[in-house]
Amino acid sequence: MHAPLSSLVAATAQWLVRAYPAGGGAVDRALAEAQARQAAGVAAALRYPTELDAALVAVTGAGGADRLDWVTGAEGDDAPWRSWVDEVVASWAACLLGEPALAAAAVAATAGRAPAGYHRLLSPGDRDRRAAALLRHPDLLAPVADLHRAGLLAALTLDPRDPALPV
User: Which of 34, 56, 137, 145 has the largest count of CB atoms under 10 Å?
Assistant: First the structure.
């Protein structure tokens, strides 16, 4: 991931964990946030693959969370970090969190042979799954994931008609 994307990734992950909160205490919230950050980081690397792409979004801004709030029925506020939420990155991250096959393909495309840093996204343990039960539930993620799933599949050069991929 390019350095200019760190604010975008942090804000998008924050939006995801607020829209799909962890059920337990502080440890569960931290585990859910780690998973959301990994998914948002991979999604941002796919969406903005070059230094120039990352620099341009850093200058122009990410767009904000208003439409995502509307789609999910979440109540937004005027917190400044929300302007750094990227709708496409959030949608792609939702796809990755809810669909392990897409997560594996996305990590392979961005991290190559260094996927070890993405173990919470790719191989969540029981505690990770419990902590992020809402964040990883495909039916709950669908309204956000479906917004830009076709773009993710195109970025990964996957055929949306492939029966191995979830609908």
Answer: 145
**162 half-sphere exposure, CB direction, 13 A CA radius:** 13
Alpha helices in 48-125 (DSSP H): 51-60, 66-72, 87-98, 100-111, 119-122
> Model confidence over 62-119: pLDDT tens digits?
899 999 999 998 887 889 999 999 999 999 999 999 999 999 999 999 876 566 789 9
> Which of 79, 72, 86 has the alpha carbon at shortest distance from 140?
72
Structure tokens that stand for 45 in this block: 């690397």
**Is the whole-model pTM more than 0.85?**
yes
Phi, psi of 166 (to 5 degrees): -65, 150
**DSSP three-state, residue 85:** coil
What's the rounded Cα separation, in Å, for the pair 144 and 20? 11
Q: Note whether 146 and 99 are within 8 A (CB).
A: no
CA angle 67, 106, 47 (to 5 degrees): 45
- Residue burial 143-160, b: 16+ Cβ < 10 Å; e: rest: bbbebbbeebbebbebee
